[in-house]
Amino acid sequence: MRDKVLAETAILVLLASRVEQTGRIAGLIEQLVDVLEGCSTDNRTKELLLRCPHMAAPLGLTQIVLAQRGRGDAETQTILRNIFRDGLADTLERIPYRAMEVEWVESLLNLGFRPDFEAAFPSNVLMKDVHPISMSRSTGYGVTHGLMYATDFGSRPPPCCVDVSLARGRIDAAVAWVLVNDDLDLLIEFIIATTLLRQPWSPYVWLAWHLYNGVVEELGFLPSPSFDPAQFAALQGDEAAAYAFRHVYHTVYVAGLLSAILLTPEATGVSGDWTAPRASMNGAAAACADAAQRGRTFARVPVEGQDAEAIAGRTIDPATALTRVSDLLDNMLQEHRQWRKVLEAHSFEPALLAQVLGDAAIIHAARRYDLPKLIIAIETMLAMPLPPSPTLIEGALFLARQQLQDGCIGVQFLSPELRELAVAAQTTEVASSCLEACARRFAMA
To answer: Does a structural domain hold residue 125?
Structure first.
């Protein structure tokens, strides 16, 4: 924990130092540097570096940032230079964004070193068909940290290999996921990630920004997902302070990084004119049509159903759609209502807001494997007068992928005897109608 806090404090100092500083901010940075120096000059770090040189990136970052300011421990900094010179910092099998971290740290230590992120970044999860329907929180951090290191937290543009339009769509989907479950830590990281793409913010990100500021205004701090208000209220004195620090500090630090990045010239374009990202169909229309046909065969109903035609041709006004998806989210996430307060405090265009929350409803219904709610959310979004979002497409594909070999849809019917029940045919028929409607809509997009 101690080493992690020191490293994250060093990053905060690094980014804050890039911002044009008033006398007060410069003084606060120096105070933080004093604390860093006082906490990182013991022999423990030297011993660990000498015995385990592959730990140079996470353990050495503090001393490297101090060295840039002419501060820190000269002996530790010499050890670090020798480790990187001899290629010992990268003698450990690492996941892609951790490998990029090593190159990024070396670029801070050796200004003549040019990290090859064009070669490393294609292995990052952001370059894959990642979507929050199946994304873990650790994968979410892989999405954000890869961009942080590859862009030097915004001082460089994204690697040329990044399809910025697809990346924006993937990050927007991730924002919709954490927007409604109070995961402020990841939410702010996703705001940072989209800012590092050097593109105007989407309605997803602006809604996240207002949520973040609304929580600060209401609570005065930024709780992490592990913060338990009841447990905190039961503590007093030093115990309460220690609990608050452990469960709040990282979210506050991430907010500090976002603030520093937004104050740089490279971030001035976030308020520009937004255009919807390109949605990759990935053969979605054909996949949905095939699943619908097989499902109707299993359910013994006509292949071309009037219900699917009615769904595909249905339109609803944005206000109705917004009410419907908001009710779905209320039902699924009864303990998370902070997003509701943001809606009440700000005016947003109903159609775009309905799409953001509709994406959130699709994601959370799929993650909970609540197929009836997933179908309602999909059909609601199909009726919106907007192009299909990447999440609508992925939600439909997720539903199609739940089809079993004989055409039945739903893992609850894995046992052959359960597929003989009437409910299996009924469930599959409803899902097939939804999929057929998706196929028709996607074919026109």
So the answer is: no
